[in-house]
Design goal:
119 residues, mainly alpha, three-stranded antiparallel sheet, 6 helices, globular
């Protein structure tokens, strides 16, 4: 049985997948890198509206540690850092595609349910 990040064994593949992509920002980072290709930090930050610099750095570090994102540092002045998807990251984006299609089909119902919860 596979083991998660210190919280015990994974129950199933969905559990392992959510461990990698869980949170508000990771899926949006993956989407931006998939649609825009290799991006510098500032470009990526503009593609993920609302994310703070601190949170973007944290999420990128986690994605890099999980083998999803590649970070390339160019030793020049000023230093340049670029982010891109690894082969595993590209595969993860392919896996997330059906979830995005499902959400697009049901977006009105999802929003209506969220507004009912708030009211």
């Amino acid at each position: 049985m596979a083991v998660s990040n210190g919280t015990g064994p994974y129950v199933c593949g969905i559990d392992a997948g959510m461990d990698v992509v869980g949170g508000k920002w990771k899926a949006l980072i993956l989407w931006a890198l998939d649609h825009e290709g290799t991006l510098r930090f500032g470009q990526l930050k503009r593609q993920v509206p609302g994310v703070s610099e601190k949170m973007l750095i944290q999420q990128l570090r986690e994605l890099e540690a999980d083998g999803i994102v590649h970070r390339e540092v160019y030793r020049e002045v000023p230093p340049r850092v670029e982010y891109s998807l690894t082969e595993m990251g590209e595969g993860l984006n392919e896996a997330l595609g059906p979830l995005g299609a499902w959400a697009t089909r049901h977006m009105d119902q999802i929003l209506a349910a969220k507004h009912r919860d708030v009211a």
